[in-house]
Every structure is written in structure tokens, then in C-alpha cells.
Design a protein that fits this description.
Elements lengths: L1 H23 L14 E3 L10 E3 L2 E7 L5 H4 L7 E5 L7 E2 L2 E2 L4 E10 L7 E6 L5 E6 L2 E6 L16 E6 L4 E10 L11 E5 H35 L4 H17 L6 H5 L5 H26 L6 H20 L2 H4 L3 H19 L2 H4 L2 H22 L5 H32 L4 H55 L9 H18 L3 E8 L2 H8 L1 H17 L6 E6 L2 E7 L3 H17 L12 E8 L7 H20 L4
Parallel strand pairs: 1-7
Antiparallel strand pairs: 2-13, 3-4, 3-7, 5-6, 7-12, 8-11, 8-13, 9-10, 9-12, 14-16, 14-17, 15-16
Helix pairs in contact: 1-11, 1-12, 3-4, 3-12, 4-6, 4-12, 6-7, 6-9, 9-11, 11-12, 15-16
Length: 631
């Protein structure tokens, strides 16, 4: 009676553990929109919903093309659309059904309400089997080497989180993907966009679940291997240990790719072979475990057939490239289902089913079967499928472990002399748990310190990057914008003027007689003259205007929403200030400049270079008129 009650409590614990693990698996937030024709509109959504957003839906897709942000600025590319997350295999794109091999470019534009400069993060899972990612024209991440053939690409599977600062409320994401190594290609797993802390929290939670599963499987495997070494006639312990160890090894190569984070340069082909090989060997180990657990009930012919198929598949995995054995992934799942169905039919026999350990094995097996069937037919190709299957395997490991424990408990009740051994084993387990808790605490403290150091390093690098941006955009001598920055700002201003229908006036200026000053007083005085002139111009334009140094003693002042006549009035004020602030008069130098104005009118079709040339020509005419005494 006591054993039956204990068995019920153990089965209840298995169910509760299954619910706990499934509850930890991150499910997508409901109510979020999907992308439509390459645009994901997040306007008006609650900030809690936007903490982490899956970039799902229709992306722009360009098959057999590798485009960058510059290519899309022409506006001449004709887009097809493809669903993400989903491998591009068998998808209809541009009137053709795609295969796994090939390459292409994905593009998605995300509209948000957040102000520019926000720190965002992208969580990229596995993309088969090499990619590059640009955000707002900047390359932020890559995996392997993208190529247009098997010889030019290098595969790599390494989930990663990348940070970036938004430039506007419109985020452009471009992903180049190539695959000639795996049967499936494209973005098969969801990409997440969100606040950096929220993305890291989710990724850390998923990785923690995998470490938890890895720890359980590894401890169970080593524990039952120890039991086998102590009592070698119990072969069930050996094969259960192998099943746990195969699963723990496989856990390193799926989901968060723990092993690939430890060894990023590890060979992709070998990693893929390990993933499939350990899954196949785990099935064979489970069959052998079942055979030795119920040696009189399992048909030897069935066991031999399973071994023949399993070892043949394992040999193919070792010998063939990944693109071949990955194409028959369904075969691995069917092999498992065949073994599982046979085991269920066997265990449901009344003679066997009445035992508590049998019920536990059935429960764990049913949970894993449900997880595999869900993976095969219902769950989309994303990270959660790996988590569900892993959770199902953990349940099988846990329930089988409990089944073995129940069997041992029954044996101990029948043999009083084995009670001492049981107590020693319990104490050993307690000691292992205590050691594990200490290691977990130490590891947690180390991780906390690492996170703090990483956050500090990120802050320092961010500050340094901001400083570099300032230095890169400024002219060192005058403190004005340099030519490259000024030209980019002017180009942007002309685009805004065209879009919003307002005028922009450009003034091209040149310091008079600078060469004579350099020849007579030296270049230091000439440089001071340039600095003085720059500051007078900068201090007397409007707040909405900006000035940049074109080169040498030439400056360009830009007056947005200002006609040429209005700009002429502003320049009269600047001329007056030149006369009032002639702080070099003691050297016999009078600061004066020549200038020329050119007005941009929306719809005129004039280019930025033509506008500057026009202002330069006007300045030259002004200089000639001044030299002729015209004013």
C-alpha cells in the first residue's frame, strides 16, 4: 500500500515538473501584428508589448541576389515576399518553388513610436547556414561566410544577440542568407527585436533552461553509470546512463547552441553530425534499456531490427555530408515513433502495467511522444520546438529514473541487507546536491560579476563611440562641421525641403586676401584669421542654420526655410559683425569675406553639387566686384 501511494506521488511530481518546464518556455506575446509586404507597423502599441517583438510575417525577399542598403536606395528593385520564420524550402517565390540550396536577401522595415537613439537588441537564433545582417545600413552581425556557391560559403550555427542604436522611427533590417550545406535554408527560427535588457533576459532564461536540462541528464547519466559499475549485472542502468549522456551531448548542439558558444570555430559539419548521431544513438540506448528492464517481454527480433536500422542510419550520418542526412529528418522521428509505439504496446500489457515503475515509464514515454508529434506537425520551425522536444526527453529521463528508483525501492524492501547500501546512496546524492548548490552559487556569483563587467564595458564603449562620432563630424581647427558631415546634412536638408515644400538658401564664402596674410605674417596668423572668421559666421546665423568648412578658407552656410532675400539680410548682419569684431586690426589686417548666395526651390530638380557650384560662382562674382571697387 505504501508503495502505491509513493508511486502516485512520484507520478504527480513528474507531471508538475513537466508543467514547470513548459511554463518556463517563452511563448510569443499575443496581439502583436505580423509584417505585411516587408513592413512591420508597431505604431500605437503598448510599451510592454514592445519590450520583445518577434519579427514574423511577410518579409521582402530577393532570390539569388545579395543586396545591401545602398541597393535599396535606388527604389528600382522588385520585391517578392516570403514568410518568416520558415525555411525557404518549398515556398513559392517569384513564380518558382524554392529548394534548400541557394542564396537570397531578406528585408524588413519596422515602424515604431520610439525616439531616435534608443538602444535596441536583435536576438538571432539559427539561420541556415550563413548570414550577414545590416540595420539602418550598418553591418551589425554575421555568421559564417555568405557565398553564392558551396565553395565560397562557410556555414556556422551560433545564436547571438547584437545591440544597435536606432537612427529614426523607421528601422531597416537587411539579411543576406546563403545555404549549400543543409537540406533546409533560410530564416527558420524567429528573430526577436526589443529592449536590450528584455532580450537578454529571455535569452538567458532559455539558456538557463538548457543548462538545467543538461545538468539533469548529465547527473542522471553519471549516477546510473556509477550504479552499473557497482552492480554490473544490472544492464538497464548502463543503457539508461548512455541514453542520458547522449541526450546531454545533444543538448549542447541544439537550441541556444551552448557548445558553439564555448567553441565558436568548431566545424559545422561535425556539429551537425553530432546532433543527429546522438539522437539516433539515444533511441537505440532507450530500446536496449527497455530490453534489459523487461528481458522476458521484449521480442528479440524487434530489438535486432531496431539496432540494424539505427546503426545503419548512424553509419550514414558519419559517412555522408549534412545536406544528405538532414534531408531525412522525418526518418529519425519515425524511427523514434516506431520504437515508442512498440514500447507502449508492450508496457500496456496487464501483466506489466500493474507495476508502478511501468506506469512511470509509460508516462514519460507518452509525454515525449506528444512533444515529438507536436514538433512534427504543429509547432512552427523555431527555437521552441527544440525546447519542447528537450522537455519531453527530460520527462522521459526523469520518469525512467524514477522507474528505476521504484524498482530499487521494491528490491530493498524484499532484501533488508540492501538497506544500508540505499542509505549510503541517499547520502551520496545529498552530498552531490550540496556540492551542486555550492557550484551553482559560485557560478551565479561569477556570472553576476561577468554581467557587471560587461555592462560597464558596454557603457565605456558606447561613450567612446559617441566621442568618436563627434570627432569624426567636426573640423578640428574651427569647431565647425567638416566637409563630409556638412555635405550629408545639406543633402538631408534638401530632401526635407523637397518633401515639405520649403526653400533653402546656401551661402558660399571665402576669406579675402588670405594668401597675402600668410605670406606677410605667417600661417599661424592666417590660421587665426580663419578661426576668427568661422566663429563670427557661426555666432551670427540662426539656431536653425548650420555652417561647415568646405576646405582651406572656404565655408558654406545653410539657411533652411529661408529665401535668398532673407539670407541676404542675415548676411548683412554678419558683415556688420565682421567690421565690429576686427580683433586683428593691430596687425593691419581687416577681416573681410566674399560670399555668394544660391536658392533651392522645391521641384526645380537642381542637385546639391549644382547648388553649391551656383553659390560658388556668385561668390566669385562678388569677389571680382569688390576688387573692382564695386562694394
Amino acid at each position: 500500500m505504501g508503495l502505491k501511494i509513493t508511486g502516485r506521488y512520484i507520478m504527480l511530481a513528474v507531471l508538475l515538473l513537466m508543467l514547470a518546464i513548459s511554463g518556463c518556455i517563452v511563448m510569443p506575446i499575443s496581439g502583436l501584428p505580423d509584417a505585411r509586404e516587408g513592413v512591420l507597423d508597431l505604431h500605437g502599441l503598448d510599451q510592454k508589448q514592445l519590450s520583445v517583438v518577434p519579427l514574423s510575417g511577410q518579409w521582402e525577399f530577393y532570390w539569388q541576389k545579395l543586396y545591401t542598403s545602398q541597393d535599396f536606395k535606388t527604389g528600382q528593385l522588385k520585391a517578392s515576399y516570403i514568410n518568416v520564420p520558415a525555411n525557404w524550402n518549398n515556398q513559392l517565390v517569384g513564380g518558382r518553388i524554392l529548394t534548400g540550396n541557394g542564396y537570397g536577401t531578406y528585408r524588413l522595415v519596422v515602424h515604431t513610436d520610439e525616439s531616435p537613439g534608443s538602444l535596441k537588441a536583435l536576438h538571432i537564433s539559427v539561420i541556415d547556414s550563413a548570414y550577414k545582417i545590416w540595420v539602418d545600413g550598418k553591418l551589425i552581425a554575421s555568421n559564417g561566410a555568405v557565398g553564392t556557391s558551396k565553395e565560397t560559403m562557410v556555414p556556422q550555427n551560433l545564436p547571438q544577440i547584437v545591440l544597435f542604436n536606432t537612427l529614426s522611427q523607421e528601422i531597416e533590417i537587411i539579411i543576406q542568407v546563403s545555404n549549400f550545406m543543409s537540406f533546409t535554408g533560410g530564416i527558420g527560427q524567429s528573430i526577436r527585436l526589443g529592449e536590450a535588457n528584455a532580450v537578454y533576459n529571455i535569452a538567458n532564461r532559455e539558456e538557463a533552461i538548457q543548462y538545467f536540462m543538461l545538468g539533469i541528464a548529465l547527473i542522471m547519466g553519471l549516477y546510473h553509470l556509477l550504479l552499473y559499475l557497482l552492480r554490473k549485472q544490472e544492464k538497464a542502468n548502463l543503457y539508461f546512463s548512455l541514453m542520458c549522456l547522449f541526450f546531454s551531448i545533444r543538448t549542447l548542439f541544439v537550441g541556444s547552441m551552448i557548445f558553439m558558444h564555448w567553441f565558436p570555430g568548431f566545424n559545422w559539419q561535425i556539429a551537425t553530425k553530432i546532433e543527429y548521431f546522438t539522437w539516433t544513438m539515444g533511441i537505440l540506448a532507450f530500446m536496449a534499456f527497455l530490453y534489459h528492464l523487461y528481458p522476458k517481454k521484449v521480442d528479440k527480433r524487434v530489438a535486432r531490427l531496431v539496432n540494424l536500422v539505427g546503426y545503419s542510419v548512424g553509419l550514414l550520418i558519419i559517412m555522408l555530408p549534412a545536406i544528405y542526412f538532414s534531408s531525412i529528418n522525418i526518418a529519425f522521428q519515425l524511427l523514434f515513433l516506431a520504437v515508442a509505439i512498440y514500447a507502449l504496446v508492450l508496457l500496456l500489457q496487464p501483466v506489466i502495467f500493474k507495476h508502478t515503475d511501468t506506469k512511470l515509464v509509460i508516462m514519460g514515454l507518452l509525454l515525449l511522444v506528444i512533444a515529438v508529434i507536436t514538433d512534427m506537425f504543429f509547432i512552427e520551425n523555431n527555437l521552441q520546438r527544440e525546447m519542447w522536444v528537450a522537455a519531453g526527453i527530460i520527462m522521459l529521463v526523469f520518469s525512467n529514473s524514477m522507474a528505476l528508483s521504484v524498482r530499487y525501492t521494491e528490491a530493498f524492501e524484499r532484501a533488508q541487507n540492501l538497506m544500508l547500501e540505499r542509505e549510503i546512496m541517499v547520502e551520496t546524492m545529498k552530498k552531490m546536491n550540496q556540492d551542486l548548490e555550492i557550484k551553482v552559487k559560485l557560478r551565479t556569483a561569477e556570472l553576476k560579476n561577468s554581467v557587471e563587467k560587461l555592462n560597464k564595458e558596454i557603457q565605456e564603449r558606447t561613450a567612446a563611440q559617441e566621442q568618436l562620432k563627434v570627432f569624426a563630424s567636426m573640423d578640428v581647427m574651427t569647431g565647425l562641421y567638416n566637409r563630409a558631415t556638412g555635405m550629408a546634412m545639406l543633402e538631408k536638408q534638401l530632401q526635407l525641403a523637397e518633401r515639405n515644400d520649403y526653400r533653402v538658401t546656401v551661402c558660399f564664402t571665402d576669406i579675402d586676401n588670405l594668401k597675402e596674410v600668410n605670406d606677410k605674417h605667417g600661417h599661424m596668423v592666417g590660421d587665426q584669421l580663419i578661426i576668427t572668421a568661422a566663429q563670427i559666421i557661426k555666432n551670427n546665423v540662426r539656431e536653425s542654420d548650420f555652417v561647415f568648412r568646405m576646405g582651406g578658407d572656404e565655408f558654406v552656410a545653410v539657411f533652411p526655410q529661408c529665401s535668398q532675400m532673407e539670407a541676404q539680410m542675415i548676411w548683412q548682419r554678419i558683415n556688420k559683425n565682421f567690421d565690429e569684431n576686427n580683433d586683428m586690426s593691430t596687425l593691419g589686417i581687416k577681416i573681410s569675406i566674399s560670399y555668394g548666395l544660391a536658392e533651392y526651390i522645391p521641384g526645380s530638380g537642381i542637385k546639391m553639387s549644382e547648388l553649391i557650384d551656383k553659390a560658388d560662382a556668385a561668390m566669385y562674382e562678388h569677389k571680382i566686384s569688390r576688387s573692382n571697387g564695386a562694394g
